[in-house]
Amino acid sequence: xxxxxxxxxxxxxxxxxxxxxxxxxxxxIHAIMGPNGSGKxxxxxxxxxxxxxxxxxxxxxxxxxxxxxLPPEERARLGxxxxxxxxxxxxxxxxxxFMKAAVNEQRKYKNLxxxxxxxxxxxxxxxxxxxxMDPSFVGRGVNxxxxxxxxxxxxxxxxxxxxxxxxxxxxxxxxxxxxxxxxVANGVNTLKTKDNAFVVIxxxxxxxxxxxxxxxxxxxxxxxxxxxxxxxxLEVENKGYDHIINKE
Amino acid sequence: xxxxxxxxxxxxxxxxxxxxxxxxxVFLVDGILQEEENRADGVFLTRGPEGKGLLLNINKDCxxxxxxxxxxxxxxxxxxxxxxxxxxxxxxxxxxxxxxDHTLKEYLYSTLxxxxxxxxxxxxxxxxxxxxxHGRSRYRLDLNVELxxxxxxxxxxxxxxxxxxxxxxxxxxxxxxxxxxxDGLYLADCEQNTEYHIAVKHHSPNCHSxxxxxGILDNQAKALFNGIIYVAPGAQKTEALxxxxxxxxxxxxxxxxxxxxxxxxxxxxxxxxATIGRLDEQVLFYMRSRGIPLAEAQMMQQxxxxxxxxxxxxxxxxxxRLEKMVESRLRGEFTKCAHCTMHxx
Lengths: 248, 345
What we know:
Chain A has about 250 residues and is an alpha/beta fold.
């Protein structure tokens, strides 16, 4: 589904990613771990199309399409989703109107008619249940006045609405208490099918108790220095990144 | 008793479909009221001095039926026009007024409208000015409002379209307990020029005022916001707020904002603030990452920006109509029918 080859990325002349290789297949969950500043969020942002970064070398093919050539909205319509580490607040735009616009753009792309208000509300209620979200949230400005946990929950809610084929979750677990973590993980597990894939970026092994990855990668200084099974996450947890970095 | 209706010769030209079936419509063509006088349901209206302008007297019998004053510039009078209005709300009266200014032709119209509004004790006025002309028109509103004890003014000014729009607004809070809520939204593109000169004057203690003005400027448009809160000696316990926020869509658009406070009392709560910014790149990326195209994301962000001004418009039907008008204005969808320069829909 996603094949990244030898990806080099820099921002303002400073190299952040230095030759990332990654291959994700349908039905898989990949976890990317790594210390602060290793380039995890950059990788997520570049895949989603953030224009502040410059790709200096390498390719990223998504379902055979050159992902890096597409604007962010087209990547989204092709089924790519980024769960933000810091979801932005948009005062004046309600979640319901935001999601309606997003869902209908996606439907337009698939040559489907826009959902009626009734259909849309029904879909929304269904998906809010997945993340145990209070219905009053959708009438409020997007993420406005939400706690950290509510924002992350809202990201998973948006993911549920858009049903992406490849979801990249950038530190969705950071700042979450145990209950919120369980809700978020439960959302991912509910949405998981054999046809979609998840790339979960995280600092801690904790999230991986709830979302069990097929492959774990350790990103360090812009490169994946080690990949392995879910036991690798435990190794990181027990012995720290230094242990792995020094060994490699 | 005569009903307020469209005057026939204007009705043939356009029909205003402002929502609300029970709206009363009053027409002024080239500053002249299209009926001699009319007295109904606590509202007395007649022509002003020299037969021009509108005198309005509203007493407590006025119902909650909104009054829409539609002022049209016709092809018969391309010359500059000045007229003045005096509108009086008797003590305890409540009224909702919508003022719409239009042009029938794309002449170089110039209109100066003086409006004096007096709110008697406990009177309550909701007033909305819709400034919706064309790119060559010059329009000036000179509005002076006096509020007596416990009177309340809720005033919205929407500058949607006009070559040059100047709004000079003076509000005098003359009696204790008076309250004034003043909002404005200006949308300008091309070479349009919009000016707001606002003065809210607290002459009496225990009054409250709040102002929110927002603008979006595109192309080479220019705008000026000059707002002052004045608190007279002895006007203690004044609470006065003012905010002016601007969004510039291009490097050539220009805004000058001058928020000012002039305070001569020592037990007051006053604040003012002004910002100038552009569309937020992070918000745009967030929207695009959900599949919303760039142009639509820019549009949504602008609509989100104006939302807190529009949400203060109390009548929901009119509010949703305004939202649509603002949106088509921002989308540049003011396509003109051959016989209409109204830009309403």
